[in-house]
Amino acid sequence: MDELQHFRMQALRRSFLGRSGVGVGLAALGTLLRGDGLAADGSQRPATEWPGAVRPLHFPPRCRRVIHLCMAGGPSHLETLDYKPKLRDMDGQPMPQSYTAGQQIAQLQGQRDRLKCLGPQHGFLRCGQSGQIISSLLPHIGSVADELCIINSMHTDQINHDPAHTLMNTGTSIPGRPSMGSWLLYGLGCETDDLPGYVVMTSVGGGQSQPIASRQWHSGFLPSRFQGVEFRSKGDPVLYVNSPAGVDMARQGRLVDAIRQLNHLSEVRLADPEIATRIAQYELAFKMQTSVPELMDISDEPQYILDMYGTRGADGSFAGNCLLARRLAERGVRFIQLYHRGWDHHGGIKKGAEVTARLVDQGTAALIKDLRMRGMLEDTLVIWGGEFGRTPMAQGSGRDHHIKGFSLWMAGGGIRGGFRYGATDELGYAAVENPVHVNDLHATMLYLFGIDHERLTYRFQGRDFRLTDVGGRPLRELLA
Amino acid sequence: MFNRVFAGPSSLMRTFVICVGCMMGGRVVGADQAVQFDRDILPILADKCYACHGPDASQRAAELRLDDAGDAVRDRGGYQVIVPGNPEDSELVRRIWAEPDEQMPPADYRKQLTARERRVLVAWIRQGAERPAHWAYMPPRRHPIPPISEGTAARNFIDAFVLAQLQERGIRANPPADRRTLLRRLSWDLIGLPPTDQELAHFLHNASADAYEMEVDRLLQSPHFGERMAVLWLDLVRYADTVGYHGDQNVSISPYRDYVIHAFNSNKPWDQFTVEQLAGDLLPEPSVETLVASGYNRLGMMSAEGGVQPEEYLAKYAADRVRNAGTVWLGSTLGCAECHDHKFDPFTTHDFYSFAAFFADIKEQGLYAGAHNTGKWGPSLDVPDPQLPALLASLDLELDALRTQLQRHSDESAERQEVAKRIEALEAQRKTLVAEHTRSTLITETVTPREMRVLPRGNWMDKSGEVVTPQIPQFLGRLQPSHRATRLDLARWIVSRDNPLTARVMVNRLWKLMFGRGLSKTLDDVGSQGEVPSHPELLDTLAVEFMDSGWDVKYMLKLIATSATYQQSSQPRPELEAVDPYNRLLARQSRYRLDAEFLRDNALSVSGLLVRVVGGRSVKPYQPPGLYEHLNFPKRVYEADVGADQYRRGVYTHWQRQFLHPALKAFDAPSREECTAQRPRSNTPLGALVLLNDPSYIEAARRFALRALSDAPREAASRADWMVRQAVGRPAEPEEIAILVDLAQAEMNDLSGRTADAQQLLAVGQAPAGAGDPVELAAWTAVARAIFNMHEFVTRN
User: Fold this and answer.
1) pTM above the 0.90 mark?
2) Do residues B251 and B335 both lie within one domain?
3) Contacts of A8 (CB under 8 A, 6+ apart)
4) DSSP string spanning B208-236?
5) What percent of chain B has pLDDT over 70?
6) Position B412 in a domain
7) What is the pLDDT of residue A452?
8) A467, A178 in Cβ contact below 8 A?
9) Is the pLDDT of residue A15 over 80?
């Protein structure tokens, strides 16, 4: 924070304290609740409000929030979004060496000379007025094809799950950098007073559940208030959000009030501005004790909505999480990330992909429709895809990890629907037309929010870091 | 491009050159006031110019290096970029004021110069464009102790340096802190625990002149000193109990943590401490201790994931080591040079890989195939706990006696069978004891070094880079051993006087430990992008003092602790807010939230639950169920420790890199995937939820209440006062007593018909609820919870 900003903050804080006197009521706190006492330079100066580092925005924004449906494990593009008839013709034949020589290979390392093509295991259908070609495994997603911008030319640098996720979230595979949700909160602030601005949920099913590290939603070197908060379907929905056994909300409220009074006395005695921040954080913590259970309680959702998602409720399933994602979006959460850990099909991909697809298909499409119905799709960016794709070569009855070409789609948030961008070669091996790197995807996402990815930076260890590391190009071609 | 289009200085230019009085670092620099390159110029050049005109050859434009004094002043066919003493003829000056089509930095570059920066650059050139080498790259030297006026509170040379700057600005230092505050501060800083009642009373009543110094000595001698220091050190070296990548499996290396604690407790010279960690296996006579220390080289992340390409991960591990050692010992961002020459500091890609080559002899695998089943993560050693011999002694005596007896008895006699049975039982017992008190730990084993090449753009598949041998970064000198340089050579150079960086870096960290902020706030970067120290002469003098003392950490901490600067009150002053908002001038001490581990220690200590055993395996405090749900290979269920291990200090918490204990994480404990020199200090609702609802804090609160019911006066107000004294070391204010007594009373009223609710609360945690009225105990548990959530309880002042 520069000096001027610092003085402004001080002035703001003083006027706030001057006005509110001893009893800082919940209502009076309003937007002042978001600070965590950390100034941008990491010092302890209280920032009572975090309005976002990017002010004014670099471009007119088209989008206000993201729902990232992370298909963890590496979904096969060849069974979902990238139709390759030529690969079907080559099924069982040797993979031409011209494709694979000198390329990175994961588990197929020992079989370099015996690589064989594996044809698409499922059919593809033309969908919607746009005629997008989408796998028969994803009929519900097919029904919203006209909303989707399918990118067939993704590529990444990392061939193992953990570093590939880290790259997909932070723009680099080196641990310790902030994830994209944290960058957005840092850049834009958040729009909710009683929920975290970045929420993560997970589900499993359909394939081996590769681990997911909490680093994937960590704020790295950004202040920790920008980290993602995991909402859980079992136990406390947010860690420690429930009062201890035997303490009801009335008594918990009285305790929090006593704490506020005690801290206010210290504030007067010690003249420490950090105390004002702490008082505000306790108020917010207590509000979360109510707002989080309220969010997770879907008894106010009509039956037809539950039917559309194909869920009975917040049961930890992907469909249930999709419904919660909509509720979070409605409440102003900036970045919502749903992981479905079930796409790592090294073997038995025919059946495996079918099972996993069935678990995610309906909920995904329902989310798009639901957002559209509420007029929220236009400023909500939905991203559907994994950390990498899978090889056109067989690994037994499955496919290995693949980084040279894979697919994902985006919808809403200013993205051009019914549109397909980029292509892999005829065997689905490498992105050859308009290749899109992960950094480009991030640059595009930031652009939709009105941010120039080269100008959203944070100084750490003497360097101005950014989400797109040293790369990235916003793909204006994809905009509506 | 700096092509010459413009001939002479404009009148406009002259105006700027003549312009006086511009702000620098918050103070006014007049025309005649000296511009300092380090403080005033380098940050501008490094931030706004070096990206294209700096050390990175691949990005360099117009064949111009502004980081190279010679290149900046050389003749470029009739003009110079910088003409020292003559801004009018300097192309740089013309270009920074030029029209957009010629302007530097280019008009479309995202970092533009401010008007102030332009003026400072002009002033610098007019004053001769002097450019002493970067402060941190010159050997530190002792500076003359500045004279200070009579009547000040100076206690040692630290104060002289600090007061000199304050006096120059007409600012007075704060008065000393009161004794209660002072002992608490000292206790937090040196052992990470609050003083007990008795310790506080003893200090308050000790009238001798050296009462304070005695406390410093006492705390430096405490076995808990090493635990406190370990929190700092383990963050740096990224100590953890799991491998970090993919399945994040457990790995046993806790004896290394014991080594660190013991090293600080025994005040092992810090140079030796350094050598043992980097090269304990290469010493002429490695001991178990130095081998355990060499576990440092094995603290990086590792993978057992099936699809891992070993060569790629060997490259990852190598880069990780350069980043870590570079930050820990050199305070440098050498890691930036993995893919390209450093953009701001004189580290080249060649330096990066040459540095990595020091570690090429470490026996390791890119892929630890099957380790998720076998637990085999490379070379390890079984280390008995220090207390094992004592535990075995009586057992062995008895066994010896029994064996002698055995021989005396005739075959098959009933007595003989009896004795044999007893021997068998004792042997089994012995075996269990040995197993319980022996831990495996990763160590370094040296093998023939593998070939190390420069990886172009960090790409491990590119074999075109040149082969390198171990060497320190070129601008810092050359090692010239007769053999291939080893980790031992590296370690010895690091702690030699030839290396200008390390002593400064460590002293700055010790300063941070005692003030919450380094003399330079960038603890991990003393390079050109780091913050120039607020008191460079003091930092240098301390660095030399550290080396001259034989790298004596306790001596340095005592020196700082006994300074008047350290002992000041932290009370903010309105007039200071304006001139020194970040307290760089040190006109007061600082206040900040305790580190995550010490928050836990505090609650356990006040409750009486804390188990003060030093060293041992990692332990598992209560944790919400299901947190490890996303882990796999193998699947894991967290089982909280039962008994004494539940109540150990935070430093011993099982460090799961991918899912760090949420109570630690909420207060900014790092995952330790990378070196952390400075934790942020956040103040978030998630932290509030931990202190409000985490079972560890609830249990501590009810045990604290139990103590109060048995030890404190019965009358409510006195009891509340007693609890405040126990928790924050001072008598309670009347208003505080009123709030707490009201709370207790309201709880009693509410709970009177609801004993079951009270009992539920008292059942949180393993410790017994205690006898007595559950309603009263639950009510005072609420009081204890309120106190545990006071700002003052979590704050070092």
Assistant:
1) no
2) yes
3) none
4) STTHHHHHHHHHHHSTHHHHHHHHHHHHH
5) 96
6) yes
7) 96
8) yes
9) no
CA distances from B204 to A215, B155, B218, B514, B567 (A): 47, 21, 15, 22, 15
- Using alpha carbons only, give the angle B104, B108, B113 rounded to the nearest 5 degrees: 45
CA distance to partner chain B, nearest, from residue A128 (Å)? 37
Best mutation target among A6, A160, A291 (most B Cβ atoms within 10 Å) is A160
The verdict on B270 and B341 lying in the same domain is yes
Q: Establish, for the pair of chains A and B, how many residue pairs have beta carbons separated by less than 8 Å.
A: 255
* Residues B714 and B765 both lie in one domain: yes
Cα–Cα distance, A159 to B366 (Å, whole number): 14
Record the tokens describing residue A386, joined without a space. 């994994």
Task: Say which of B309, B673, B789 has its CB closest to residue A104.
Answer: B309
Residue B413 and residue B345 share a domain: no
Put simply, the chain B residues between 534 and 573 with a CB less than 8 A from any chain A CB are: 571-572
Please name the residue that has the structure tokens 């859980």.
A232
Helix and strand numbers, DSSP H then E, in chain A: 13, 17
Mean pLDDT, residues A449-473 taken together: 91
Q: Best interface-test mutation with B: which of A214, A249, A288 has the largest number of B CBs within 10 A?
A: A214
Asked if the Cβ–Cβ distance from A462 to B527 is below 8 Å, we say yes
Domain that holds residue B160: 136-176+500-589
| Residue where the block lists tokens 């959000």 | A241
- Same domain as A328, residue A188: yes
Q: Does B632 touch chain A (CB under 8 A)?
A: yes
Q: Are B127 and B40 contained in the same domain?
A: yes
Interchain contact, A263 vs B791, CB within 8 Å: yes
Whether A459 and A334 map to the same domain: the answer is yes
The owner of tokens 């530190």 is B140
Q: Which domain holds residue A200?
A: 65-233+314-478
Percent pLDDT > 70 in chain A is 90
Amino acid residing at A260? R
**Chain B residues touching A39 at Cβ < 8 A:** none
Q: Are residues B620 and B752 in the same domain?
A: yes
What confidence tens digit (pLDDT) does each residue in B272-283 have?
999 999 999 999
Mutation site, A10, A104, A215, A259, interface B, largest B CB count within 10 A = A259
**pLDDT of A67 strictly over 60:** yes
CA distance linking residue A267 with residue A259, whole number of Å = 12
Asked if A474 and A328 sit in the same domain, the reply is: yes
Q: How many domains does chain A have?
A: 2
Whether B349 maps to a domain, the answer reads yes
H or E stretch at A65: strand A65-72
Amino acid identity for residue A278 in this structure: R
Number of domain units in chain B: 5
**What is the Cα–Cα distance from B722 to B265, expressed in whole angstroms?**
33
Chain A neighbours among B 693-712 (CB < 8 Å)?
Answer: 693-695, 698
Cβ <8 Å between A45 and B581: yes
Instruction: Sort out which chain A residues have CB atoms less than 8 A from B797's CB and list them.
Output: 270
In a domain, B480, yes or no: yes
In a shared domain, residues A330 and A474: yes
Residues of B in Cβ contact (< 8 Å) with A395: none
Residue in the structure block whose two tokens are 């009018």: B88
Q: Is the complex ipTM higher than 0.90?
A: no
Average pLDDT over residues A16-45: 33
Considering only CA atoms, which of A212, A63, A69 is closest in space to residue A140? A69
Distance from A133 to chain B by nearest Cα, in Å?
31
Q: Are residues A334 and A188 in the same domain?
A: yes
Cβ–Cβ contact B311 with A under 8 A: no
Backbone phi and psi for residue A473, each to the nearest 5 degrees, phi listed first: -145, 125
With CB atoms and an 8 Å threshold, state whether B658 touches A214: yes
Phi and psi angles of residue A431, each rounded to the nearest 5 degrees, phi first: -70, 115
Backbone phi, psi, residue B540, to 5°: -65, -45
Q: Domain of A210: which CATH number?
A: 3.40.720.10
Question: CB–CB of B529 and A248 under 8 A?
Answer: no
